[in-house]
Amino acid sequence: MTETAPDNADQPGSATDRTAADDADALLEVRSLRKHYQDGGGLLDRVLGREATSVKAVDGIDFDVRRGETLGLVGESGCGKSTTGETLLRLREATGGTVAFDGEEVFDMDDESIASFRRRAQIVFQDPFSSLDPRMTVGAIVAEGMRIHGLPESDPTVATAAELSVGDGIDRMVEVTVADDLDRVIDADDGVARVPVSVRMGEKSPEASVDHDLLGATVEEREADLHVEVTVTGSKGEIRRAKAGRLLERVGLSSDQVDRYPHEFSGGQRQRVGIARALALDPEFIVLDEPVSALDVSVQAQVLNLLDDLQEEFGLTYLFIAHDLSVVRHICDRVAVMYLGKIAELGPTDQIFENPDHPYTKALLESVPRAEVAEQGRRVATLAGDVPSPRNPPSGCRFRTRCPKVIPPEDIEIEQSTFREVMNLRETVEAGSLDPEAVQEVGAQRYREEELPALDGENAAVVDSALEAVADGDHAAAAATLRERFETVCETTEPDATPDASGDVVACHLED
Ligand SMILES: Nc1ncnc2c1ncn2[C@@H]1O[C@H](COP(=O)(O)OP(=O)(O)OP(=O)(O)O)[C@@H](O)[C@H]1O
């Protein structure tokens, strides 16, 4: 599989369409983002005469992720969620559109800006088994990003000092306020880090010591005062290892585990390692790509709580990808519902769950298993049929082939279920796959009475005439007859998915 070349030139809704008001609290702004994969076209495909086709995994989506929020991205498998997350992080090359991070265009960044973006924006993958290198210790895995980015940046010889008056006495503990350069070695509180140093009188001169593996202290008499200095004595590698240990502790593991290998951990613990790795570069934004889907239900809540706590502690912004709606409900501030490469609906979580507008959102919610006993017996049939192929998505509204609310033409009266049968018939006729002999055998009218029993009046007459054309082998004429009568706005026109002033989207003609 190859990835199609980018083409940003002619995209609507590009950076220039952004207004200051839209951007006020957006950390990430995604506009007209597209990612098409080129499927086929390799040597074997050419030998077999197969043409390359374009998989429209993400096909023009717009949304913002606001600072400090968790935006959920949900939808059935294959609708383009992971592709969206990976493309906006520039882990995949976009086919079109723009992404701005903190006001800077991600796809236009030079090497220096990209390096900084890669520190500030991280990803946690779904599968904690395959996403950790089995040959590396978890300490090395967590520290790897720091190593690649040359962190810590500070010179290990950097020192910070305090002056003590001898009159203060000598055998005592003093606290040295540490320069920023040492902050990565010890934890700072409100931006200020302090190191306790013990100063005492030695045989000939004062001595200082500090109880820390990576720091050392010296003391020197300067006229009437004592000059106490704290220096980093650990190497960069040791500092990274220490930070990895602290991060493992922060995610609920132990710093003693830095030398263990991934296979020594359970699934939930490995995912904690993946989270520690994402935190190692002090990011602002994290794409969480189904972070709990592969975990036991009992462990899921613990990891979700951890993510919630970390968000608050470090002021993180999340894009939370999930196919399971029940997971996003408790962690997301807003939810974007994706269908076949497009955003169907986006809004505040409560609104999406309690008052959804898009028929796809409603159907997705209906398909969530209910805990309430009274509802357990309910069989959900709303999301019938398969998701169409992203190689050849339906025209107009992509959900129309499965939608229970397709809008019939204004001038005809027809029940939704009957209209759905007509649309299914149209699809078969347009594909040329209705067998003329099957119609000839019973006659057009009888065929229609059996297959579409609820159809009557002019609607029935039009279908009869189309079926007669099928019986004559003329599928094209039959398709044209049916289209003329039954064509719906849902197939001719793509619904507007531009976010409104509040950032909400309902891409459905019923809302026009
Ligand atoms: N490298 C690739 N080459 C070709 N097609 C791809 C590639 N990666 C993904 N796709 C296709 O793109 C579409 C979107 O896939 P994507 O993984 O983004 O969806 P998803 O919503 O994250 O699904 P899932 O929940 O199953 O991961 C799918 O049809 C998928 O088969």
TrEMBL record:
The keyword Flavoprotein does not apply. PROSITE patterns: ABC_TRANSPORTER_1, ABC_TRANSPORTER_2. InterPro entries: AAA+_ATPase, ABC_transp_ATP-bind, ABC_transporter-like_ATP-bd, ABC_transporter-like_CS, Oligopep_ABC_C, P-loop_NTPase. Transmembrane segments: none annotated. GO terms for molecular function: ATP binding; ATP hydrolysis activity. The keyword Transit peptide does not apply. It holds the Pfam family oligo_HPY. Keywords: ATP-binding, Nucleotide-binding, Transport. Residues 28-365 form the ABC transporter domain. It comes from the Archaea. Residues 1-22 are annotated as: Disordered. GO terms for biological process: peptide transport; transmembrane transport. Belongs to the ABC transporter superfamily. This is Peptide/nickel transport system ATP-binding protein. It comes from Halolamina salifodinae.
